Each structure stands twice: as structure tokens, then as C-alpha cells.
């Protein structure tokens, strides 16, 4: 199950460099490609607004 970025995202860009498989793309709200995400959790650890969580 891929991690998901919520509406809380402030587009700070911190998470994008943490992803080892380049699953995160930029935007007004950043997005995680569920096909690429390996559930490592690295992005969630660095998000300053806790906008990233495991998907349900
Ligand atoms: Fe990338 Fe890991 Fe975050 Fe998935 S959980 S988007 S693989 S950093
Ligand atoms: Fe959005 Fe959090 Fe990523 Fe910053 S670190 S771009 S707030 S999801």
C-alpha cells in the first residue's frame, strides 16, 4: 500500500529528495505515484506539516 500526500501539503519540496525511487512529483500539492512507492516511509519522516501517511 503506497503512502499518500494529503491536502495539508504546503508544497515545500522537502520530501521529493528523500524518495529513493523518485515516486514523488511536484505540484500545488505534491503527489506520490502508487505504482512506484515502496512504502519505505522516508518522505513521511521529513514532512514539516505531517501531510504524508501510509495509504489505507
Ligand atoms: Fe518514496 Fe518511500 Fe515516500 Fe514511497 S514512502 S513515496 S518510496 S519516500
Ligand atoms: Fe508537501 Fe510535506 Fe512534501 Fe513539503 S514535505 S512538499 S509539505 S508533502
Automatic annotation (TrEMBL):
Pfam families the record matches: Fer4
InterPro entries named in the record: 4Fe4S_Fe-S-bd, 4Fe4S_Fe_S_CS, 7Fe_ferredoxin, PSI_iron-sulfur_center
Required cofactor names: [4Fe-4S] cluster
Domain 4Fe-4S ferredoxin-type: 1-25, 28-56
Superkingdom of source: Bacteria
Gene Ontology MF terms in the entry: 4 iron, 4 sulfur cluster binding; electron transfer activity; metal ion binding
Keyword Iron: yes
This protein's record includes keyword Iron: yes
Keyword annotations from UniProtKB, A to Z: 4Fe-4S, Electron transport, Iron, Iron-sulfur, Metal-binding, Transport
SUPFAM superfamilies, per database record: 4Fe-4S ferredoxins
Function: Ferredoxins are iron-sulfur proteins that transfer electrons in a wide variety of metabolic reactions.
Protein name stated in the entry: Ferredoxin
Species per Swiss-Prot/TrEMBL record: Prolixibacter bellariivorans
Amino acid at each position: 500500500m503506497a503512502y499518500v500526500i494529503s491536502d495539508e501539503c504546503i508544497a515545500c519540496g522537502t520530501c521529493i529528495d528523500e524518495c529513493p525511487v523518485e515516486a514523488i512529483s511536484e505540484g500545488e500539492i505534491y503527489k506520490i505515484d502508487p505504482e512506484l512507492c515502496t512504502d519505505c516511509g522516508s518522505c513521511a519522516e521529513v514532512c514539516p506539516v505531517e501531510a504524508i501517511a501510509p495509504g489505507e
